[in-house]
Amino acid sequence: MGLKLKREKERIFLLSFIYKLSKMLFFLSSKRKFNLYLTLEWIFDRLAHEESFNHFSFEKHPLRYYSMAFLKQRIKATDNVLDLGCKFGEISNKIAEFAQKVVGVDMIVNDIVVAKSRYNKSNLEFVHGDAFEFLKNSQDKFDVIILSHIIEHIDEPILFLKECALHSSNVYIEVPDYDKSYLNHYRTKMNNPLQYTDADHIWEFDRAELHQMVEDSGWKVVESEYRFGVIKFWCESDYIKSF
After folding, report:
1. What's residue 56's pLDDT?
2. In contact, 148 and 91? CB cutoff 8 Å
3. 178-203 pLDDT, tens digit each
4. How far is it, in rounded angstroms, from Cα 128 to Cα 3?
5. Torsions phi, psi for 105 (to 5 deg)
6. What are phi and psi of 187, to 5 degrees?
7. What are the backbone angles phi and psi of residue 126, rounded to the nearest 5°?
8. Cβ–Cβ contacts within 10 Å for residue 94, how many?
9. In this structure, which long-range contacts are made by residues 116-122, counting pairs with CB atoms below 8 Å and at least 24 apart in sequence?
10. Which residues contact 201 (CB under 8 A, 6 or more apart)?
């Protein structure tokens, strides 16, 4: 059930001030004013999101809390898990609490050094390397591959997902949700340059596009969730079952 609020809202000085300020922009055309507001919304949305990681701990951050809850319901205690693009290893470390073994891989050597210094579990291993090269050179099979905010950075995500299918029967995909707000689609229509979540993203996926891409890669989306501005897919493949 949603929030129930008082009909009369508290007066917020900053909000009133900005509304009055907007009336002073009469010299701007509707199109330029619209684009200005879209740009400002993107900037403040990004600033608020970045600051949230300074306010919430990893365990209590809404974005991470519900992602881990999603994974904990699906990863079994006997599973061997591969976390590609693990960065500082926070997700790898949490998964190691309820999985049999976790291997975290990242291409940035300093991030792996930090991960190794922070987390030391007997069932947790960190490896420096490129995710795609790791898969191509590995003979290991995993029960689950974690792709948390990874495929939006990859030039050929379909090829990458096909390679993942050679090593696991399950993959978890989490990416920013372009459909989280109609404002993203307004930006597209207005040719606003701020159409990305992060400057190093190559792709921004809406829900239908991502679903189709996953299926084109040979995976089947068996469960999905759309919360806190991200898409979560739990996918299965029959390929590895032939081994």
Report:
1. 93
2. yes
3. 999 999 999 999 999 999 998 899 99
4. 45
5. -125, 135
6. -60, -40
7. -120, 135
8. 20
9. 116/89, 118/88, 118/89, 118/93, 119/89, 119/92, 119/93, 121/93, 121/96
10. 152, 153, 176
**Non-local CB neighbours of 13 within 8 Å, separated by 6+ positions:** none
Pull the structure tokens for residue 212: 């189709």
- pLDDT at position 1: 65
- Sketch out the chain's domains with CATH numbers: 62-242 (3.40.50.150)
Give the Cα separation of 239 and 241 in Å (integer): 5
> Is the alpha carbon torsion for 207, 213, 215, 221 positive or negative?
negative
Question: In the structure encoding, which two tokens stand for residue 71, read together?
Answer: 């994974």
Concatenating the DSSP letter of every residue in 189-240 gives HTT-S---SSTT-S----HHHHHHHHHHTT-EEEEEEEETTEEEEEEE-SGG
The contacts of residue 108 (CB under 8 Å, 6+ apart) are 87
CA distances from 38 to 16, 28, 132, 182 (A): 19, 14, 36, 11
